[in-house]
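Comment thread on ticket #2218

A.B. wrote:
> Attaching the input chain for the structure job we discussed in standup.
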Amino acid sequence: MRRLTWLALLAYTAVMIALTMLKAFYRIGYLWDPAVHRHRELRLIPFEDLVGAVSWFAPLFGYLGNLAFFVPFGVLVFMLVGSVRRTVLVGFLTSLGIEIAQYLFALGYSDVDDLLMNTLGALLGALVAKAFGPRWHKVWIGLALTLGVVFAVLVGLGERLGDPDKVVDVY
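C.D. wrote:
> Ran it. Output below, let me know if you need it in another format.
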């Protein structure tokens, strides 16, 4: 079971890295423009997106998306380390590593809010794994492995999943 947990964590981490640092190199349909992700920006003021937001949707989607993004990671890490504190530390360090790499390699936005929400997501994941207990471990592993396969298929299908003539810019 431990090997499968490591495999599930590896698969989910690969999805996380692909969605945070590699979007400049592939498409899934026309969900994003790869060129937009080839830049460097550092945002160090917490919750700054709330102040300058044109609508409530973008910040809410960003904050909740980053939080939810790290919940499965927190679940899987907790299954391996068995400690909420260690899981939070691993979540924080993983998120910090992603944010630093995004900045160093000019692959998007390095944002303190992402670091905060990702760390909170890892905490929530650890709490979920702890609350549900070992009986659910096979479920979490299966979901993470399935997500890895589905994501690989979506990347493989790439632009065939969308129609460029129907793309609408959303502000």
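A.B. wrote:
> Thanks. Noting for the ticket: DSSP finds six helices and two strands in the chain.
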